[in-house]
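Re-run with default settings, no changes from the original entry. Doing this only to confirm the output is reproducible before filing.
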Amino acid sequence: MNLENIYFNTNKTPVISYEVFPPKNDIDGQKLNHLFSELKKLCIFKPSLISVTYGAGGSNQNQSLEIIKRIKDELLVNPMPHFTCVSTDEKNIKNYLESISKINVENILALRGDIPEDGNVCKDFEHASDLIKYIKQKTDLSIAAAGYPEGHREAVSFKKDIEYLKLKADFGTKVVYTQLFFNNVHYFNFVDECNKSGINIPIIPGILPVTNFKQLEKMATLCKVEIPAKMLEILEKHKDDSDYIEKYGIEFSIKQCDELVQKNVKGLHFYTLNKSNAVSQILSELM
């Protein structure tokens, strides 16, 4: 099922989707099997989509494809591979698109990807909008893109960031998945500004349940995300108590998601970090 059919329906219940990533250093396949054990627990909540990340330059392409196949065949859920272009030339992009076409994938999340530390950038596709335009011209894939409620960390301005997203929409993007955020005001403001700019496609909030304080600090810095003052104060006070951090993080996400659902969002996209417990508890409260 493509993105149009998943999100453009009359059902008012928010679409549930997850993001997972290929496990690192999985020599014997045990980590991959564990990932699917976790996903089976999450499938209780009837997700419509599971996205699979993809390393810059295709560093884990084969593993991503294996996960995509298993999501389709074992879980019977629509997979959505991520695809980055920053270090990939047109030939490799063409080959990858043919690979996912052979296994009947219908959706793709098109991204620029992070600039490699060695600065090895391919000039064939410098921006996500270039990749989106190419995919739209060459395939029948339903295309998703990323959005940044607090602005991309490299953006000149928030306004300019919205202009780039409008370009992605004009080139064929059907759905936007946002970067994680913890203050819903940023999301609501982002959606309003997108609508004012003529971006009228579903903008799905990306939710990260906090389960680890150090991990949170790293991701917030990496992604340029505000941690609300009260939240930060509580987490810093209990940063050495992992059980407390996870419990608080789950409770925070429940309240965050509840407010989003009350505002009639079309979906909730969970960054699972390949674990089921936090997301399961959140969805158990919401559904």
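The first helix runs from residue 3 to 7. The longest strand covers residues 173-180.
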